[in-house]
Amino acid sequence: MSQNQNAGRSHNIKTDSSSSEWVEQFKYLGTTLTNRISNLEEIGSRQKSGNDCYHSVQNLLSSSLLSKNIKIKIYRIIISSVVLYGCETCSLTLREERRLRVFENRVLGRVFGPKKYEVTVEWRRLHNGELNALYSSRNIIRLIKSRRMEWA
Question: Nearest 5 degrees, angle CA 125-CA 83-CA 52?
């Protein structure tokens, strides 16, 4: 049926002894499944969960008591695992890739902290290229693509 014919109707799927309601989306094992092709809602949900994790460990990432290696491990184990959960089945657009890279650069900026110019003694935030050079692992997009290939 077309969308106009479906408007206002409730859909039930009946089997031998039970019936189920037709829904637009539902959450299964932490992943939001929809009847649309777009993964925008799921990626947004994963990024929101990653932001929640980031804010819960933000004090650890900016602490001077922890080494950079410990902070990177916190990022890899806690934050990126939440963001990358179920990424094997997502197809990313350039816009979604950009949003994920911005998220990763924000977290890495907190991990590595600002840089001090020796000559002018001023502090500044690290540029994305500098963050990529300091972070020796694959970026989040390459990690998603490699997981997708392993899954296939």
Answer: 70
Q: Which residues pair with 27 in a beta bridge?
A: 32
Structure tokens at 97: 């890739």
Please tell me the distance from the alpha carbon of residue 13 to that of residue 21, in angstroms, as a whole number.
Answer: 6
What is the pTM (predicted TM-score) of this model?
0.71
pLDDT digits (tens, 9 = 90+) for 28-56: 666 666 666 566 777 788 888 889 999 99
Task: Give the number of other Cβ atoms within 10 Å of residue 3's Cβ.
Answer: 6
Q: Which two tokens stand for residue 102?
A: 């911005």
**Residues whose CB is less than 8 angstroms from the CB of residue 34 and which lie 6 or more positions away in sequence, other chains included:** 24, 25, 41, 42
Considering only CA atoms, give the Rg of the chain: 21
Position 37, amino acid: I
Decide: 113 and 131 in contact? Cβ < 8 Å: no
What's the pLDDT score for residue 7?
Answer: 53
